[in-house]
Design brief:
Layout: H1 9-14, H2 16-21, H3 34-57, H4 61-80, H5 89-112, H6 115-134, H7 136-142
Helix pairs in contact: 3-4, 3-6, 4-5, 5-6
Length: 145
């Protein structure tokens, strides 16, 4: 069992505008749990990474920039800002550092048209996404879902 990072539900509510900006608003309902909201952020991140790779391959620099910008906003304004570093302990700090690294690599990918950096971000985030998905039952139980 993976320990869950301390998540601030109020932070998730504050960032509802972000979810709308990343076109996830159709899936966010008033009864979405914090776990479901973070799951949607992961989905949006991986969708953005795929779009950025496709745009890079098509030499569509504007679309690549939009997709990477969306990915950066998801990581910074969604995933990283939702961490509670005071209560989350080492796991929250490690995730914070990982998210900072992902943001740096996304910026590099955008500036240098580096598909390898996009693939690295996806590879690093896949186990985090899978770990998050694996605790759904426990998170639903905590939030009465």
């Amino acid at each position: 069992m993976y320990p869950t990072p301390a998540f601030r539900p109020n932070s998730a509510a504050r960032h509802c505008g972000l979810y709308q900006q990343v076109h996830l608003d159709s899936q966010v309902h008033g009864d979405a749990s914090p776990h479901q909201m973070v799951t949607m952020l992961f989905d949006g991140l991986f969708e953005s990474l795929a779009q950025a790779r496709g745009a890079l391959r098509a030499n569509d620099i504007a679309a690549k920039g939009r997709a990477i910008g969306r990915a950066v906003r998801i990581v910074d304004e969604g995933l990283r800002s939702a961490l509670n570093l005071q209560q989350g302990g080492a796991l929250a700090r490690d995730l914070h550092d990982l998210y900072a690294y992902i943001t740096a690599r996304l910026t590099h990918a955008n500036l240098k048209n580096d598909e390898g950096a996009l693939e690295e971000c996806a590879a690093l985030m896949t186990p985090v996404r899978e770990a998050w998905a694996s605790i759904r039952a426990q998170a639903d139980a905590l939030h009465g879902a």
